[in-house]
Specification:
heterodimer, A: 112 residues, mainly beta, B: 115 residues, four-stranded antiparallel beta sheet, 0% helix
Chain lengths: 112, 115
């Protein structure tokens, strides 16, 4: 069935390091893809999205490209900050477009 | 700013005592969702409303109910909370385009504790 798989965490980085969080999906067709971020004790904030193949979503220095050949939507940032420490969820819409299917989340911890 | 608001942010209830969580939105979106997120897990959709049409997920327990009296408000009712219902409850909204490009916007969540 439809699913989203993202790399297991936690990911621990030093400030200014390069970040990659892998995400792959299974789907029939080309669903919209999303990255959400969740800070401790908070709800989910939309970080970026892509609605069709080859689209690149970007926000706050984060980027992800919708790659249909590899069914991937990896999240990248060139230089992480301590304030980026959070849980990151990759997600896709289900076929009906009515619900988000989430990956299990990846915890990022950035130290100064 | 247009937003999704959830009240209260923290709710404590007793085992078996009914509880209601509230969500409101100023986005004028057609669709409102309720998700349950247990500790260190991904959010799981309980149900959603498209306007006044209620859509329940197949595996949502009967203990969970919802009401949407108008476009702006949606409530989650837990009729007899059990210890396993302790979780963060997230409300989300979307325009409801129906073309597979909808984006869901989340509120800050209500953390429910069951004693």
């Amino acid at each position: 069935g439809d699913s989203v798989t993202q790399m297991e965490g936690p990911v621990t980085l030093s400030e200014e390091a390069f970040l990659t969080i892998n995400c792959t999906y299974t789907a029939t067709g080309y669903p919209s893809l999303f990255w959400y971020v969740q800070y401790p004790g908070e709800g989910l904030q939309l970080l970026l999205k892509a609605t069709k193949a080859d689209d690149k979503g970007s926000n706050k220095g984060f980027e992800a490209t919708y790659r249909k050949e590899t069914t991937s939507f990896h999240l990248e940032k060139g230089s992480v900050q301590v304030s980026d420490s959070a849980v990151y969820f990759c997600a896709r819409l289900n076929q009906a477009g009515t619900a988000l299917i989430f990956g299990k989340g990846t915890t990022l911890s950035v130290s100064s | 700013d247009a937003m999704v608001i959830q009240n209260p942010r923290y709710q404590v209830t007793q085992f078996g005592k009914p509880v209601t969580l509230s969500c409101s939105q100023t986005l004028n979106h057609n669709v409102m969702y309720w998700y349950q997120q247990k500790s260190s897990q991904a959010p799981k959709l309980l149900f959603h409303y498209y306007d006044k049409d209620f859509n329940n997920e197949a595996d949502t327990p009967d203990n969970f109910q919802s009401r949407r009296p108008n476009t702006s408000f949606c409530f989650l009712d837990i009729r007899s909370p059990g210890l396993g219902d302790a979780a963060m409850y997230l409300c989300a909204t979307s325009i409801g385009r129906g073309d597979g490009t909808d984006t869901q916007y989340f509120g800050p969540g209500t953390r429910l504790t069951v004693l």
